[in-house]
Amino acid sequence: MLAEKKERVIMGIDPGTSIMGYGVILEKGSKIELITMGIVRMDHLDDHFLKLQRIFAKTVGLVDEYKPDVVALEAPFYGKNIQVMLKLGRAQGIAMAAALSRDIPITEYAPRKVKQAITGNGSAGKEQVAAMLQRLLNFKETPEFLDATDGLAVAVCHSFQRVSTSGSGKSYSGWAAFAKDNQKRLK
């Protein structure tokens, strides 16, 4: 039996087309520590494809710098404006592609699930999420944008899933990995 890694780095990303928030934590057993959090601004760019290029480049740069074991992303919420949904989906897909280009597994969480994991309330506001994260990770500075704490919340949510499920939950980096572990289900 392989010994399980005692530490892992989790990067959380809240993809957006104007501002992408991110947070990186170090998980040591059931304890978590803040490594960094921040934002990538794209609101000064007019061209949607330039925004996507920036998301890809910045995500690859963050992955190369912090070397996460996993990237957790917030899934786009369902809205009425299909154009906004399409743009958010593209932003998320580009962030996924950037992590996958470095062979980093991806896990995705619905916004309600993230808020529920952090505050106990699936409809909590960004400010409530940020305040809870400040208490949990013991940091004082309030990020300039709540998008940074949103990205951090996704990373913490991913950590909590592993702790709360005692290893029974599993993520896969691709179809081949899933198929290998689930051969009986595929017959």
Main sheet strand line-up: 3-2-1-4-5
**How many structurally independent domains?**
1
Q: Identify low-pLDDT runs.
A: 164-169
The whole-number mean of residue pLDDT values reads 86
**The CATH C-level class name:** Alpha Beta
Largest β sheet strand count, sense and barrel closure: 5 strands, mixed
Could you characterize what this model shows?
By secondary structure, the protein is α/β, with parallel strands linked by helices. The chain has one domain (7-186): Nucleotidyltransferase, domain 5, CATH 3.30.420.10. It has six helices and five strands; from the N terminus they run E-E-E-H-E-H-E-H-H-H-H. The protein has helices at 48-66, 82-100, 111-119, 126-137, 146-165, 175-181, and strands at 7-14, 19-28, 31-41, 70-74, 106-109. A five-stranded mixed β-sheet has the order 3-2-1-4-5. Helix 2 (82-100) links the parallel strand 4 and strand 5 (106-109). The radius of gyration is 16 Å and the shape is globular.
Structural key phrases:
alpha/beta; Nucleotidyltransferase, domain 5; 5-stranded mixed β-sheet; 5 strands; 46% helix; 20% strand
Quick structural gist:
The protein is of the alpha/beta class.
